[in-house]
């Protein structure tokens, strides 16, 4: 079987595949392939090691329906049409768990950076505008003993909640489809309704998959219900919040600040007003971007492909029903 690796990955992980005697075709560069290039390369392959967030929509699946497996290098799988993959019998895997702590670190970083307007102050220095601004100029707010609200308290949300509790004694509330017994036991986390989450959170952090139900879930009406001194954090997917509504809520003082690792669209346009706001910190979707975590994610993806190569099931398959056919 031949595997196509769509972008540069750690050498150790390439070796892992080589040790299995798999035939490898490799885009050994950081350049993102065009749709046409990706399809063309996949037509020559049996397995796809999909590095990054290339849009694997229904038409891609149709063009590449001969594939025996697709390994994603992300926990989110909204960029892959799983219905189409299942229809063609293609198992698709993701990379859960190994990135939870690192992505939670990114949310924590944004929470703290936003609360202290850190990116704004750094921009001031770069602009040569470091001056004595006075005692009360662009002050931050503290996180100590505040309430952290988590929308989607799964693996990543739990890691963030643990850090927030340990660092600042924050009270944890959450809203999920189902209760998280571990968080309730470990952190005294309190399950609340969606409206209570909006109304009670001092920091509201989003950790959910992008689905038709969560798309644009945080809109003008939600921001109006939040506290005026609340901080909104999103490290999941940019389409979970309505960006224009968020901009307006911040401009009108309905919210105190926002920290985003994900935007809509990505990349964010440089003229986006969010980038000029003192109380906003934006990162370019680097949630899992550490050497250790990216290596662990690539290793997990490789192991899923190796399982298919040996005639087995992908351990981290996301379209589980593909194996029921
Ligand atoms: C993930 O793993 O889903 C990250 O957001 C990268 O896309």
Automatic annotation (TrEMBL):
Residues 109-287 form the D-isomer specific 2-hydroxyacid dehydrogenase NAD-binding domain. GO terms for molecular function: glyoxylate reductase (NADPH) activity; hydroxypyruvate reductase [NAD(P)H] activity; NAD binding. It comes from Sinomicrobium oceani. Transmembrane segments: none annotated. InterPro entries: D-isomer_2-hydroxyacid_DH, D-isomer_2_OHA_DH_cat_dom, D-isomer_DH_CS1, D-isomer_DH_NAD-bd, NAD(P)-bd_dom_sf. It catalyses: (R)-glycerate + NAD(+) = 3-hydroxypyruvate + NADH + H(+); (R)-glycerate + NADP(+) = 3-hydroxypyruvate + NADPH + H(+); glycolate + NADP(+) = glyoxylate + NADPH + H(+). It holds the Pfam family 2-Hacid_dh. One of its GO terms (cellular component) is cytosol. Keywords: Oxidoreductase. The lineage of its organism: Bacteria, Pseudomonadati, Bacteroidota, Flavobacteriia, Flavobacteriales. Belongs to the D-isomer specific 2-hydroxyacid dehydrogenase family. GhrB subfamily. Residues 3-319 form the D-isomer specific 2-hydroxyacid dehydrogenase catalytic domain. It is an enzyme of class 1 (oxidoreductase). Its EC number is 1.1.1.79, 1.1.1.81. This is Glyoxylate/hydroxypyruvate reductase B. SUPFAM superfamilies: Formate/glycerate dehydrogenase catalytic domain-like, NAD(P)-binding Rossmann-fold domains.
């Amino acid at each position: 079987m031949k595997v196509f690796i769509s972008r540069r990955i750690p050498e150790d992980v390439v070796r892992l595949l080589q040790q299995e005697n798999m035939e490898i075709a490799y885009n050994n560069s950081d350049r993102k392939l065009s749709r046409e290039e990706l399809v063309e390369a996949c037509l020559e392959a049996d397995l796809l090691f999909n590095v990054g967030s290339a849009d694997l929509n229904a038409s891609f699946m149709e063009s590449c329906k001969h594939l025996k497996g697709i390994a994603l290098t992300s926990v989110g799988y909204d960029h892959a049409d799983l219905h189409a993959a299942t229809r063609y019998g293609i198992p698709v895997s993701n990379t859960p768990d190994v990135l939870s702590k690192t992505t939670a670190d990114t949310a924590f970083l944004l929470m703290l950076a936003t609360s202290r307007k850190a990116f704004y102050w750094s921009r001031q220095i770069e602009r040569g505008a470091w001056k004595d601004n006075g005692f009360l100029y662009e002050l931050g707010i503290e996180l100590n003993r505040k309430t952290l609200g988590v929308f989607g308290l799964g693996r990543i949300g739990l890691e963030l909640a643990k850090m927030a509790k340990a660092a600042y004694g924050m009270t944890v509330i959450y809203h999920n489809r189902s209760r998280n017994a571990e968080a309730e036991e470990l952190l005294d986390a309190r399950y609340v309704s969606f409206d209570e989450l909006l109304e009670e959170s001092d920091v509201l952090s989003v950790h959910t998959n992008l689905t038709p139900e969560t798309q644009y879930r945080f809109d003008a009406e939600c921001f109006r219900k939040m506290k005026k001194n609340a901080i909104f954090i999103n490290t999941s997917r940019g389409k979970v919040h309505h960006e224009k509504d968020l901009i307006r809520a911040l401009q009108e003082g309905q919210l105190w600040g926002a920290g985003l690792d994900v935007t809509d669209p990505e990349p964010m346009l440089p003229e986006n007003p969010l980038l000029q706001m003192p109380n906003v910190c934006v990162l370019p979707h680097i949630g899992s971007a550490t050497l250790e975590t990216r290596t662990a994610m690539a290793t997990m993806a490789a192991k899923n492909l190796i399982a298919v190569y040996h005639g087995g099931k992908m351990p981290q398959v996301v379209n589980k029903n593909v194996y029921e056919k």
